[in-house]
Design goal:
The complex is a heterodimer of chains A (336) and B (379). By secondary structure, chain A is of the alpha/beta class. Chain A contains 12 helices and 14 strands. The termini of chain A are far apart. Chain B has 15 helices and 7 strands. In chain B, the strands form 2 sheets. Chain B has a 5-stranded parallel β-sheet, with helices on both faces. In chain B, strands 4-5 form a two-stranded antiparallel ribbon. The longest helix of chain B has 26 residues. Classes of the chains: A alpha/beta (336), B alpha/beta (379). The complex binds thiamine diphosphate. Thiamine diphosphate sits at the interface of chains B and A.
Chain lengths: 336, 379
């Protein structure tokens, strides 16, 4: 896995995830002239979430391109650009608006290296703001990670902290394989202190955000803060919960996940996407296969319901919250 | 002749049957260079006075609807409102050009067209208020749900029109989209299918100059968007989209042509989005105030008022009635949206399938238990 050095000279700073992502794009473009940003409204406007703010001003419209409104066209064009030596970073405006590009993503982006015997790798990063909790009307809140994770050939990365947003985006852009980079919209505006000069970690390493010995909550992206909150609340119930942030679904850091699960013996996988056929199903199955004799209870899942994403006034009933997580923890066969 | 008989295409003389292009003469399909106008031209004198007054009334009420919905959004009463302020001529004329049996396939900005079609103005806002997805019955109003994924509703319009034609029903489908939407693959595929199937469908592109921040010059290099019709083998028409009488006339013609078996038409209406893209957008980042001001001078209500006055059709009664109706509607919107609606969380599980799966039944039971426990705590 390639790593890229952080160029930002300054030490610790406080910023939002949106600003960290913007910084990562800027630094990557400064470091490598083959990095090109393209998408709908990414130029003058700086993207509807302002993640590309100021890039056209600094690098010109050739490096940060407002494209016509056509997702299949954007990604298909990026494929050709990558074939000619560029490193495109594509922005899909919202999760559900990436769907017109799925043909290009599934049939070409994911497969080109394989189809060409390794001759045509595609170093493309597809940034997708995803997930709910922002009060969006239909088609603005999909948690679409399972579609991507189910497609061999794609890396699927999703940061949950400001520092990871910077580091993982740098690593994704530096990757010679295509990366679907899922940005949890509802975490865009949360501010934290972080160190932009810290070394960029490679893609594929899970991190334990909180230690604990009762059970581990395994999660990623938008659900990390919910899990940390649940772990805090669990103390009142006498549970000491660990929280594992996967950071990428592909590669799945099986070694770290298994180590944690084997040492604790109880696990709940948490994500907001629908449960059936979701990433949690894969993770739970895999952990059960690998850690069966260390488990004191089946690996449980807490997920969104198996329904189309609801209207904003009802979304809080759909999204996994602290209570639902604690209910699952309570079902981990403590009496045995 | 079956409905899929292709003899309607006029072969160009001098070419052998089955030979390659050109198979039809493109000249009759080309749009006029200047957009069609009615108001302020001699054509206005020939227009039906009742129609002009009706358009005026609907424009005034429509503008107020846009304003009130925008205000409600600022007050947090709607989740989002993509206003069609400045584009009311297209919105009301599109709805008026259709008959009761026809179908409208609107985009996310076309709430006012849906209302003009006869859907209850409050029900039409359900999606944007955020309590349910589609608040009206598409079958009852022959109005498809507002489509947010751009241009994706265009092939649906073609399919419905095709099916109606196969059934021998004199039904026309009209779909509305923006200039940005014309870049999507679905738009092109819909035009091609419509022309090949000779489907009774009308495509109305409201070219308001921008797709969020992206100006038309970065969206398309076509001479006009109406020219896109020619490549697919249907006529393209260009119209002043702020001239409600002109939009109504051009759409009316296209609808009648489609109904009579003449096939599809693409209409480009030149208009302007006076407000920001939505309440979440800051339009000052990508366009100049002078540009907005210039378009305000070409406002659809101003154009209509001026024309009616010239024709001696703008009496005080009409002005007063329109204003009263507009205020009554705005008051109704304020009253209805004053408080959050009563919502049933269990509605999450309704209509996912005709019959819920076993898993969905279990999940519904889980939510019901959670809600019961919550209610317990509150008592
Ligand atoms: C497939 C798809 N991609 C992106 C979006 C996000 N989006 C919503 S509106 C919009 C601009 C649409 O511009 P245009 O078609 O000109 O219509 P207008 O907003 O001007 O009415 C964009 C990019 C979307 N809704 N659907």
């Amino acid at each position: 896995m390639t790593t890229a050095p952080a160029l930002n000279g300054t030490a610790t700073r406080t910023s939002t995830m949106a600003q960290a992502l913007n910084g990562a794009l800027r630094d990557a473009m400064r470091a490598d002239p083959t990095v090109h940003v393209m998408g709908e409204d990414v130029g003058t406007l700086g993207g509807v979430f302002r993640i590309t703010d100021g890039l056209t001003a600094e690098f010109g419209p050739e490096r940060c391109l407002d494209t016509p409104l056509a997702e299949a066209g954007i990604l298909g064009t990026a494929v050709g650009m990558a074939m000619y030596g560029l490193r495109p970073v594509v922005e899909m405006q919202f999760d559900a608006f990436a769907y017109p590009a799925l043909e290009q993503l599934f049939s070409h982006v994911a497969k080109m290296r394989n189809r060409t015997g390794g001759k045509l790798p595609l170093p493309i990063t597809v940034r997708v703001p995803y997930g709910g909790g922002i009060g969006g009307v239909e088609h603005h809140s999909d948690a679409s990670e399972a579609y991507y994770a189910h497609t061999p050939g794609l890396h699927v990365v999703t940061p949950a902290t400001v520092a990871d947003a910077y580091g993982l985006l740098r690593a994704s852009i530096a990757s010679d394989d295509p990366v679907v980079f899922l940005e949890p919209k509802r975490l865009y505006w949360g501010k934290t202190e972080w160190d932009p000069t810290a070394p960029v970690e490679p893609i594929g390493k899970a991190v334990l955000r909180r230690t604990g010995h009762s059970a581990v909550l395994i999660t990623y992206g938008p659900s990390l803060p919910v899990c940390l909150e649940a772990a805090e609340a669990a103390r009142a119930e006498g549970w000491d919960l660990a929280v594992l942030d996967l950071r990428s679904l592909v590669p799945f850091d099986e070694a770290t996940a298994c180590e944690v699960v084997r040492s604790i013996g109880r696990a709940v996988v948490v994500h907001e996407a629908s449960g059936f056929g979701g990433a949690g199903a894969e993770i739970a199955a895999r952990l059960t296969e690998k850690c069966f004799h260390h488990l004191s209870a089946p690996v449980l899942r807490v997920t969104g319901f198996d329904i189309p994403y609801p209207p904003p006034m009802l979304e809080h009933h759909h999204l996994p919250g602290v209570d639902r997580i604690l209910d699952a923890v309570a079902r981990l066969q403590w009496e045995d | 002749m079956t409905v899929l008989d292709h003899r309607h295409t006029a072969a160009v003389p001098g070419w052998l049957p089955g030979a390659t292009a050109p198979r039809t003469d493109p000249a009759p399909l080309l749009p006029d260079t200047a957009p069609v106008r009615v108001l302020g031209t001699p054509a206005a004198e020939k227009a039906d006075p009742a129609l002009l007054r009706e358009l005026y009334r609907r424009l005034v009420v429509g503008r107020r609807y846009n304003q009130q919905a925008t205000t409600l959004t600022k007050q947090g009463r709607l989740a989002v409102y993509p206003a069609s302020t400045g584009q009311e001529a297209c919105q009301v004329a599109a709805a008026l050009a259709l008959g009761d049996q026809d179908w409208l396939f609107p985009s996310y900005r076309d709430t006012l067209a849906v209302v003009s079609r006869g859907v209850d103005p409050l029900e039409a806002l359900t999606l944007l208020r955020g309590n349910a997805h589609t608040g009206y019955d598409p079958r009852a109003s022959r109005t498809a749900p507002l489509s947010t994924p751009l241009a994706t509703q265009a092939p649906h319009a073609v399919g419905l029109a095709h099916a109606a034609r196969l059934a021998g029903d004199p039904v026309v489908a009209l779909t509305m989209l923006g200039d940005g939407g014309t870049s999507e693959g679905d738009f092109h595929e819909a035009l091609n299918f419509a022309a090949v199937l000779h489907a009774p469908v009308v495509f109305l592109v409201q070219n308001n100059g921008y797709a969020i921040s992206v100006p038309l010059t970065q969206q398309s290099a076509a001479p006009t968007l109406a020219h896109k019709a020619v490549g697919y083998g249907m006529p393209g028409r260009l119209v002043d989209g702020n001239d409600a009488a002109a939009v109504h006339a051009v759409l009316g013609e296209a609808v009648e042509r489609a109904r009579q078996g003449g096939g599809p038409t693409l209409v480009e209406a030149l208009t302007y989005r006076v407000e920001a893209h939505t309440n979440a957008d800051d339009a000052t980042r990508y366009r100049q105030d002078e540009e907005v001001a210039a378009w305000r001078e070409h406002d659809p209500i101003l154009l209509m008022e001026r024309a009616l006055r010239e024709l001696g059709l703008l009496d005080e009664q009409l002005v007063q009635d329109a204003a009263d109706e507009a205020e009554a509607l705005a008051a109704r919107m304020r009253a209805e949206f004053h408080a959050d609606p009563e919502l049933d969380p269990m509605s999450l599980f309704a209509h996912v399938y005709a019959e819920p799966t076993q898993q969905l039944r279990e999940q519904a039971a889980q939510l019901a238990a959670e809600l019961a426990a919550e209610a317990e705590v509150h008592h």
